[in-house]
Amino acid sequence: MPSSVMPTSRQGDGQLPPAAVSAVALRKSYGDKTVLDGIDLRIPAGSVFALLGPNGAGKTTAVKILSTLITADGGQAQVAGHDVATSPDGVRAAIGVTGQFSAVDGLITGEENMLLMADLHHLSKREGRRVTAELLERFDLVDAAKKPAQSYSGGMKRRLDIAMTLVGNPRIIFLDEPTTGLDPRSRHNMWGIIRELVSDGVTVFLTTQYLDEADELADRIAVLNDGKIAAEGSAEELKRLIPGGHIRLRFTKPAVYRAAADALHGATRDDEALSLQMPSDGSQRELRSVLDWLDAAGIEADELTVHTPDLDDVFFALTGSTRSTRSTDKTDQAKEAVR
How far is the CA of 251 from the CAs of 244, 260, 272, 286, in angstroms? Predict the structure, then answer.
């Protein structure tokens, strides 16, 4: 891919860091259904990128194209510096892929699954056993190593699946809904594994249906809807797209509350709760401004809380979904904000 289309830059000179994964105008259709409608992506090396979207939005299709499992109908993409169309072998040598459904063979042991993967990577028997032993220990599977994988719990199978993915020492890993079907404890264990991978310099491309997962793990998040990227940014940046954030001041003394309400004409009053509410994007700048105003007026609030929309709000607004407690106004305002 020409550098003029997707630049690769150096850190430390005011330019963007190198991209581990990049795509320009990526398109894919199945019959008359357009799944990806010209999406652009740029994922810095050593980061976690989360792709969110409703079921059928095209998340898995994007992963399959970038991991060379299927070809795009249009556009360009590079993974680890290799063009996915002209250098698929180079891409495959640099990546690991864990799909929604485990690739673990349940009829053989966890150790045998690992050794089989080592053979597929053409490791020597000695090296294969060394790598297998290290990864089984790293993923807390030593005690179960000699047991058939079909006897493993869901969380254990997921850990084995990722361990198998790491046999080839990939620098970029695609995790397609890696915690689907796991209990909360297993999900949190998987989050810890993902953090460890990134701390080792691995780039993680994550698709998930769990919004708290993206909020917890991702450096950047993109919301995919109707084949297009509806919005992209950090979790905090995306939350600020949605109206409804506010700062709430609560008072215990009616006289102080009335003085604050008289001085702050733009605040919404709740005389029964002795509280004032002001629109806010939740930024540090706005919070500091409110605190400075309180100090200057000689008014002390007994409680100050900042309320910002969460990723659920972002997701439902940008994808056009609705909840019984949400109005369509938020959908329209969010879509307008990213145009």
Answer: 22, 9, 11, 20
Name the domain count of the chain.
Answer: 2
Tokens standing for residue 237: 């940046």
Between residues 306 and 129, which one has the greater pLDDT? 129
- 16 has pLDDT over 80: no
Q: Are residues 27 and 63 in the same domain?
A: yes
Q: Is residue 339 part of a domain?
A: no
Q: In sequence order, which residues have a C-beta less than 8 Å from that of residue 25 and are 6 or more positions away?
A: 38, 39, 40, 74, 75, 76
In the structure encoding, which two tokens stand for residue 12, read together? Answer: 């430390």
State how far the Cα of 242 lies from the Cα of 239, in Å rounded to an integer: 6
The token pair that represents 339 in the structure block: 């145009």
pLDDT for the residue 17? 65
Q: Is 209 in the same domain as 267?
A: no
Three-class SS of residue 119? helix
Q: Which phi and psi (to 5°) does residue 175 adopt?
A: -115, 105
Q: Kindly tell me the sign of the dihedral angle through the C-alpha atoms of 277, 279, 280, 281.
A: positive
> If DSSP codes are grouped into helix, strand and coil, which group holds residue 261?
helix
Q: For residue 202, give every residue at least 6 positions away whose Cβ sits within 8 Å of its Cβ, in sequence order, or none.
A: 46, 170, 171, 172, 173
Interatomic CA distance for residues 58 and 34, integer angstroms? 9
Summary mean pLDDT of the chain: 85
Residue 21's DSSP bridge partners are: 43, 79
Cα 126 → chain centroid:
37
